[in-house]
Write a structure and sequence with these properties.
Family: Belongs to the thymidylate kinase family.
Bound molecules: adenosine-5'-triphosphate, ligand LXEULUCI
Mean pLDDT: 90
Strand order of the largest sheet: 1-2
EC number: 2.7.4.9
Strand content: 5-15%
Oligomer: single chain
Keywords: ATP-binding, Kinase, Nucleotide biosynthesis, Nucleotide-binding, Transferase
Structural class: mainly alpha
Shape: globular
Number of strands: 4
GO molecular function: kinase activity
Order of helices and strands: HEHHHEHHEHHEH
Pfam families: Thymidylate_kin (PF02223)
Radius of gyration: 16 Å
Distance between the termini: 16 Å
Largest sheet: 2 strands, parallel
Length: about 200
Amino acid sequence: MEGIDGAGKRTLVDGLTSRWRDAGRRVTTMAFPRYGESVHADIAAEALHGAHGDLRSSSYAMAMLFALDRAGAARDIRTALGESDVVLLDRYVASNAAYTAARCGQDAAGDAVEWVAELEFHRFALPVPDHHLLIDVPAEVAMGRAAARGDADATRGRDLYERDNNLQRDVDAVYRQLAQINWLSPWWVLDANLAPSLADDLLTA
Ligand SMILES: Nc1ncnc2c1ncn2[C@@H]1O[C@H](COP(=O)(O)OP(=O)(O)OP(=O)(O)O)[C@@H](O)[C@H]1O
Ligand SMILES: Cc1cn([C@H]2C[C@H](O)[C@@H](COP(=O)(O)O)O2)c(=O)[nH]c1=O
């Protein structure tokens, strides 16, 4: 499940999971970054919240932290694939591709996407997803949701990426390009406003 910050990924993952479980399917969900479970994710979170000075400005360092977090979950993902009907991931490698490409700028975006795929799928041997689900929501709406949530949750607050509206718009554009070319596997673009009924469609697919 992919989309910019505040798009509604967690909400939709939770909704789909309960619908599919109610229908008798074995569903495993995981969310990346694995905050609190992986040292790499926690260092990334510190950087996103303003620690580590220069590190936060390095797209390479951030992408590597997110990739190492996922590499540590590779075995769990494979086990889940063997034991479940559906493995539903709240963000995965495409997040790293989209955010890193957006951070690198248009001229280097293609190289960034290729580098992330090579690193994560080849070097770290993470499984390639069968499908990507992209939440189609106007960037302004998602940014508004992320801002409202950040204001409401004093313990979390908005991180550096969430506060960067230009970055969010650029990430949105990269996601749409990845969906258009069906990067690595078919991409299903979900209209966020139609989420409940789409969940039924997905169930029968
Ligand atoms: N369809 C919707 N309509 C209105 N509000 C929504 C909808 N889906 C989610 N929200 C709200 O928007 C906020 C962000 O949703 P959610 O946490 O699911 O997004 P996310 O994509 O997982 O965000 P992030 O990537 O930043 O963690 C939450 O407060 C949630 O309740
Ligand atoms: C998994 C992952 C995430 N990111 C970015 C996307 C978000 O802005 C932040 C943190 O994620 P959250 O959903 O808001 O908790 O990090 C990334 O750049 N690369 C990744 O692999």
